[in-house]
Amino acid sequence: IGVDFALKVLNWDENTIIRLQLWDIAGQERFGSMTRIYFKDAVGAFICCDVSRPRTFEAVTNWKRDLDSKVTLADGSNIPCILLANKCDLPKEEPFLNASFIDKYCQENGFIGWYFTSAKENINVEESASFLVSEV
Questions:
Q1: Long-range pairs for 17-21 at CB < 8 Å and ≥24 separation?
Q2: Which residues, listed in sequence order, are joined to residue 118 by a DSSP beta bridge?
Q3: Distances (CA, A) of 134 to 18, 62, 80, 81
Q4: Could you read off the pLDDT of 35-83 as tens digits, one per residue?
Q5: What is the domain-level CATH number for residue 101?
Q6: 90-136: per-residue pLDDT in tens?
Q7: Of all helices (H) and strands (E), which one includes residue 98?
Q8: Can you tell me the distance from the alpha carbon of 72 to that of 44, in angstroms, rounded to the nearest whole number?
Q9: Core vs surface per residue 46-85: b (16+ CB within 10 A) or e
Q10: In Å, what is the CA distance from 91 to each residue of 8, 19, 21, 52, 87?
């Protein structure tokens, strides 16, 4: 309920194929009590916001805090997490997110990086996945 699952295959090099299990918990706060189950054994994460809906960015901090409180690496450190500012393909009259703001936000909140993305147009999907894998 409220979760989608996908597999992303990366051809890392000529000898290595990486299969990422992606769990989309759809940003629905009503499932917040179940996130520990979804986060179990994760070694990296993406947190997404919709560049056309400022309210989704407001929830990013809460999702990052929830992630950091419920899953860590074996050494106790936080798992690598990338912020994805999705739907960058949509026309924007007045963009509420700009690169310098996101850079500062990510640095202050423990993200290892961020990307403007479009799932629809396949913009920065491969790049962000490859970056996360390189940090795991």
A1: 18/133, 20/129, 20/133
A2: 123
A3: 11, 25, 10, 12
A4: 777 788 888 999 988 888 878 888 899 889 989 999 999 999 999 999 9
A5: 3.40.50.300
A6: 876 656 678 888 999 999 999 999 999 998 898 999 899 999 999 98
A7: none
A8: 10
A9: bbbbbbeeeebbebbeebbebbbeebeeeeeebbbbbbbb
A10: 27, 33, 31, 9, 9
Cβ count within 10 A of residue 104: 10
Model confidence, pTM: 0.84
Domain that holds residue 62: 4-135
Residue predicted with more confidence, 65 or 10: 65
Average pLDDT in the 20-33 region? 66
Q: State the Rg of the chain over Cα.
A: 15
- For the chain, the domain total comes to 1
Check: CB of residue 92 under 8 Å from CB of residue 123. Answer: no
The answer on pLDDT for 23 being more than 80 is: no
- How many C-beta atoms lie closer than 10 Å to residue 88's C-beta? 20
